[in-house]
Amino acid sequence: MSVENKVIVITGASSGIGEASAKLLASHGAKVVLGARRESQLQEIVNDIKANGGQAVFRVTDVTNPADLTALVDLAKTEFGAIDVIFNNAGIMPTSPISALKTNEWNAMIDVNLKGVLNGVAAVMPDFTAQKHGQIITTSSVAGLKSFAGSGVYGATKFAVRNLMEVIRMESAQEHTNIRTTSLYPAAINTELLHTITDTSSKQGMNKLYAAVGITPDAVARVVDFAVAQPDEVNVNEFTIYPTKQA
Ligand code: NDP
């Protein structure tokens, strides 16, 4: 049971959970392919992985653009010969009460957190179906399991990807394609995610919560590593990751 030599595409790899996962997986011998919008951060992370003896490449990727996801998957195949896993992790969380009507932010969350995941799924599905092997990991959230005031649209996108992953799992079983699906439901993880909040009261509340209870993204990275390392016939498909201090 190992991630060694697995080719893993990771979106949202320029910080937080994606960065921590890329570094951990590469340190265990996986070949990681990093996508996000910020080129300098991606370059720095790839340099760091290589300096530690790992294998990594990156491509500037906007998950709202289907062609970018296709190009990222193509890069994995060109560089490393195949693709075993896509980790749909890119996300934004500009939470606010619905009454604030931040409709541009609603649309941005739908574009990144839901359509971005669909674009990732579409980019790998032809290869995964043909090779009858593959794993789709998606970062949902505890806000994809239960409702929180302020998380109306964020939670809607995270509930949506939960359903998507479960349906892919069921259809793969029916179609005998052996595609594994893993949904992650993290709670408060200290990353750059809160930077995307513009609503003052939401930001204050979240900052206070995370400062009090938040844990580092390595906690999620270790779960990703565990899920990828399982044998092909084993689909560990849901993980909730809470800080022990969070109620
Ligand atoms: P970060 O803000 O550190 O990471 C978010 C990542 O998404 C960045 O790499 C960012 O890179 C990328 N991203 C944002 N928009 C796009 C886009 N349009 N195209 C490509 N990449 C994009 O936060 P986290 O690590 O916390 O977030 C990772 C995931 O975890 C998200 O889906 C988030 O919803 C989820 N999550 C996080 C929790 C937490 O408490 N931190 C709890 C539950 C879920 P760039 O800006 O360079 O494009």
From TrEMBL:
Keywords: Oxidoreductase. PROSITE patterns: ADH_SHORT (PS00061). It comes from the Bacteria. CDD domains: SDR_c (cd05233). GO terms for molecular function: oxidoreductase activity, acting on the CH-OH group of donors, NAD or NADP as acceptor. InterPro entries: NAD(P)-bd_dom_sf (IPR036291), Sc_DH/Rdtase_CS (IPR020904), SDR_fam (IPR002347). PANTHER family: DEHYDROGENASE/REDUCTASE SDR FAMILY MEMBER 11, DEHYDROGENASE_REDUCTASE SDR FAMILY MEMBER 11. Belongs to the short-chain dehydrogenases/reductases (SDR) family. This is SDR family oxidoreductase. It comes from Lactiplantibacillus paraplantarum.
